[in-house]
Write a sequence for this structure.
């Protein structure tokens, strides 16, 4: 969350008007005069959320039978790991077999970290009425809730004999960006793995601690497709029109993202003895900075491991770099060309 704001602050020790506008454009926020207090708010949100998570998780680990000191340590570690969508756990089997309090607390921390700074900031400023939220926050909240519900129900009804409803909810949340697991991923059927790959591809929201193409990008693409099929010439969401420029950016970012994964899978299959399912899952997980695996990571040769490292790096900085690149001013040409038809 602080990456894009920190490097601006380090340039001169302060943010100029031009830099404020660039940063505001990156964060999709018009009130660029508030850019100077971004770091303070991000730190405030982070510490408050992680502290609450630390308390709840410490209680949960105490219920698991761990001692007082061990429970506090595990609560602190997993609270930070969950909010930052890192997915690291000190347990060999991640959170398999843990009690519901731990699973729900980790899920809520992942969701908070994946919503993004702007949405959390609005939620914490007591804008409880949905109509008062900005268009960005409305889209993020609706898309996030829809993906969580869809993923939970899909996994639960597909594997209700083997997975509880809480585990289904947990996997629906964590597969988007975090990488924790409460069940054995490599034993899940292919249709569940396909859904997990789709959720990893979409990822979290803009300005969050997660990866993926972002929920806003996914929403714009899906909504614009339905609008085209209905014959609408303008994309209107919550009584607000979305610029054609955003639609083009959404499709361009998604195509570039998918193309990178496609190239990564081809290289992985050519250089390592892995199946298509395992190779695709590994590449999507790396690109989405999720961290889930079907168990082939330790078996990859140096080329395969280097490829996974590269995909993780691109997946983490790619969207931010693309956004910064498109913020550069371009000279408008006065020349207009005649339109051509394509069949």
């Amino acid at each position: 969350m602080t990456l894009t704001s920190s490097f601006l602050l380090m340039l001169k020790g302060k943010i100029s008007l031009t830099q404020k506008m660039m940063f505001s454009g990156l964060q999709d926020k018009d009130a660029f005069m508030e850019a100077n207090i971004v770091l303070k708010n991000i730190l405030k949100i982070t510490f408050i959320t992680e502290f609450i998570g630390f308390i709840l998780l410490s209680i949960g680990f105490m219920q698991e039978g761990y001692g007082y000191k061990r429970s506090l340590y595990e609560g602190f570690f997993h609270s930070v790991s969950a909010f930052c969508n890192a997915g690291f756990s000190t347990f060999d089997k991640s959170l398999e077999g843990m009690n519901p309090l731990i699973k729900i607390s980790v899920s809520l921390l992942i969701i908070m970290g994946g919503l993004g700074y702007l949405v959390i900031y609005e939620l914490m400023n007591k804008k409880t009425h949905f109509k008062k939220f900005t268009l960005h926050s409305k889209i993020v909240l609706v898309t996030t809730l829809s993906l969580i519900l869809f993923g939970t129900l899909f996994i639960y009804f597909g594997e209700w004999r083997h997975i509880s409803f809480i585990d289904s909810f947990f996997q629906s949340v964590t597969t988007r960006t975090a990488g924790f697991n409460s069940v054995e991923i490599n034993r899940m059927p292919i249709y569940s793995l396909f859904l997990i790959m789709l959720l990893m591809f979409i990822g979290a929201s803009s300005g969050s601690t997660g990866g993926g193409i972002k929920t806003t990008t996914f929403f714009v693409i899906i909504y614009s497709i339905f609008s085209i099929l209905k014959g609408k010439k303008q994309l209107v969401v919550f009584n607000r029109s979305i610029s054609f420029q955003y639609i083009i950016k959404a499709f361009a970012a998604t195509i570039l993202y998918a193309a990178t994964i496609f190239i990564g899978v081809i290289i992985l299959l050519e250089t390592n003895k892995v199946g298509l399912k395992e190779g695709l899952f590994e590449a999507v997980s790396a690109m989405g900075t999720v961290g889930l695996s079907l168990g082939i990571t330790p078996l990859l040769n140096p080329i395969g491991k280097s490829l996974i490292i590269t995909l993780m790096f691109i997946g983490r900085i790619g969207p931010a770099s693309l956004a910064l690149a498109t913020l550069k001013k371009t000279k408008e040409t006065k020349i207009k060309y005649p339109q051509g038809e394509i069949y």
Residues 3-326 form one domain.
